[in-house]
Amino acid sequence: MVESASKPDAVPGQGSRDRPGRTLDPLDLFDIRSELSEEEILVQDTVARFVDDQVLPIIRECFEQHRFPRELVSEIAALGLLGSSIEGYDCAGLNSVAYGLICQELERGDSGLRSFVSVQSSLVMYPIHSFGSEAQKQRWLPAMARGEAIGCFGLTEAHGGSDPASMKTHAKRQGGDWVLNGSKMWITNGTIADVAVVWAHTDEGIKGFLVERGMPGFAAPEIDNKMSLRASVTAALFFDNVRLPEASVLPGVTGLRGPLSCLTQARYGISWGPIGSAQACLRELLAYTGSRKLFGSPLTHKQLIQVRLADMARRISTAQLLALRLGRLKDAGRLHPTQVSLAKWNNVRMALDIARDCRDMLGGGGISAEYVPVRHMLNLESVITYEGTESVHQLVVGKELTGVSAF
């Protein structure tokens, strides 16, 4: 578990403070680390070491082979990273900032790995913990915390991604059971999941159902030929007269409040994750521009290069401050969904722009997987779309400003 890990001498994956001519960490110019508690630092260091030692050596190959590194799940679970914010049920009970740092370090490795943890923690364990019966919690949460069971979240449909209320999936009572029909699309973990949290229309309103692998009429084929999140499992879910007992219904919520609250949890983690992607890109670019000579001197000696590097540092620093403030608000119980939308919009856009610019500044080598920016760039094209597109979050903020819904 993260609580028992030893503190390393330096932060894995971060810039060094003892490089000549530098007094600040180039990846943390505002010294966000000094604002963290000892436990938060311990969590970040532990996950950073895991990413450096076990993720980075294999993730490029996983991306190229379109393979989720399932062999890492047991270690992720052993570190206490699954359902880390939940109290009890074999979960770590960490605060929101610690969970954000987990997402940041995992995404420094790859967005696909952070997506796995986000879905397991925020989109499956969270609704079971918040809306499930005690029997459902006891059955699923400890097993999911230990990585013995994997979950997925079924909300998005092919024709209604940004408009969940228009979903076609429906469930009808039949005797003492429910019969579920419909389909879901772009579902992370879908093919490997032991249980799916599926949202469907009913005569009583939108409800959540726990659909288990192997139930007759339930299929979850993987979506192939992705150019993004290739180290992640993405599936479609199909329900053809799937019969569910009443015990499969999440009893604690009816209506869109259920799935939307789950999305707020996931978007919170996503507000932190892309900071790690951006840091990985900038760190590699700093090394490259320091060693690559052009017209007689290293690229770092060129004004245009320094301006572009400085702009990346500005964007990362802003995102770090935004994420930390968001985490403190969440831990204080004062978080508003609009604040999450603003942070998700700003921080993912920041990371995608930096990844694209780093890819460009690497020249011809930028399109090679030898360098990390193109992989992060491709992944972030998905991150900026899922859990609410950039346009949706802009409209959420616009509604907050004007009081008018323009959806």
Task: Note down, in words, how this protein is organized.
It is a single chain. The protein has helices at 38-65, 73-78, 96-109, 111-131, 134-145, 257-291, 303-331, 337-361, 373-383, 390-402, and strands at 151-154, 170-174, 177-188, 195-200, 207-212, 218-219, 234-245, 293-294, 297-298. By secondary structure, the chain is α+β, with helices and mostly antiparallel strands. The strands form three sheets. Strands 2-3-7-6 form a four-stranded antiparallel β-sheet, with helices on one face. A three-stranded mixed β-sheet has the order 1-4-5, covered by helices on one side. A hairpin with a 2-residue loop joins strand 8 and strand 9 (297-298). The model is unreliable at 3-18 (pLDDT under 50).
